[in-house]
Amino acid sequence: MELYDLTLREGDQMPDRSYDADAKVEAALALDRLGIAGVQAGFPATGETDRETLRRLDGRLDATVTGLARAVRGDVDAVVDAGADGVDVFTYLSDRQLRHVVDKSRDEMLEATRDAVDYARDRGVDVQVSLVDSFRTDLAVQTDALERFADVPVVNLPDSVGATTPATVAERLDALDERVDLSRVGVHFHDDLGCAAANTLVAKEHGVAKADVAVASLGERAGNTPLEQVVAGSASDRGDEMGLAVERLIPVCRDVLSALGETVDPRTPVLGEEPVTHESGIHTTAMLAEPSAFEPFDPADFGGQRRLLFGAKSGRGAATRLLERAGLAPTDDRVERALELFASEGPLETTEAVALLAERVDEK
């Protein structure tokens, strides 16, 4: 399964955001270091910033650079004229969005989409189609749309409002697998129910061609599928690094966040500080001997670093092991003194704790 990153476009659609071209270009260059398959750099028909971003990225990335377009020729022109490698044409599929967003029939929208696809090809670029609100659309309608675009290499099925859970994703993909070739299907999830990463990993197990992701889930409402969680989950749980430079994952994501002026909550999986910081006495004692006792993966595998902290919560086991690291026999007196030092001077990281014991544990 290939990953296409939408951070530049979806992140820019969050409230009170307006990334300039410099920020978007810097973020795209960072993403390219991960080896990701594609970067959707913007929606060129909506403004000059996205057109400038695409022009400045032309020929600079190993990743495929795409732009978003409605099913109208003018939008396709905006993408192609800006120098993108490909066009992502989106169209509405569900009854509620056809009625309340575009006020058109399904046949009208699909005919317009066919025209946009053919026009993009005439202009010499690759094209994908996204069937908006796909997972709230009847299976028969979804299947018919996929069959109408059987000549399109990848047709994306967006869960546009994040209403789908892993069980539903599995059920729908199982049903589609009996009707179409899932190796030409892409998925696009939002995180409104907190299921985007899980949904994407379920889709991966079903053999879909691609998935849309965003760094730190940056995107509309609750955000999109978090890139870092999909990559770390696939690599650590399934042993599949997806052809990416996974050892760069965390540094690349942090570079993207820095370029866009974004931050993450300290408790954010994979990217936050707290998931790799341990202070509980039982946990730190065990992790001094075997870090995997209380972590799902070694943060270093993805370019991160764990932190063990020693302070008032530390127990005799941790004190004993740290004294041994300091080259000191863990006598009862030294263990008690170590705990006093941790309580008064902590929290301390491992190297600080060892240095403190070496210097002060035998003070009178």
Number of domains: 2
Strands of the widest sheet, in order across it, are: 1-2-3-4-5-6-7-8
Reading the helices and strands in chain order gives EHHEHEHEHHEHEHEHEHHEHEHHEH
The CATH level-2 architecture of the largest domain is identified as Alpha-Beta Barrel
Annotation field: number of helices? 15
Oligomer state of the chains in this structure: single chain
Overview of the molecule:
Helices cover 44% and strands 14% of the residues. The relative contact order is 0.09. It is α/β, with parallel strands linked by helices. It has 2 domains: 259 residues, TIM Barrel (Alpha-Beta Barrel), CATH 3.20.20; 87 residues, no CATH class. The strands form 2 sheets. Strands 1-2-3-4-5-6-7-8 form an 8-stranded parallel beta barrel, surrounded by 7 helices. It has a 3-stranded mixed β-sheet with strand order 9-10-11. Helix 2 runs parallel beside helix 3, helix 2 runs antiparallel to helix 11 and helix 9 crosses helix 10. The model has no long low-confidence stretch (mean pLDDT 96). Helix 7 links the parallel strand 5 and strand 6.
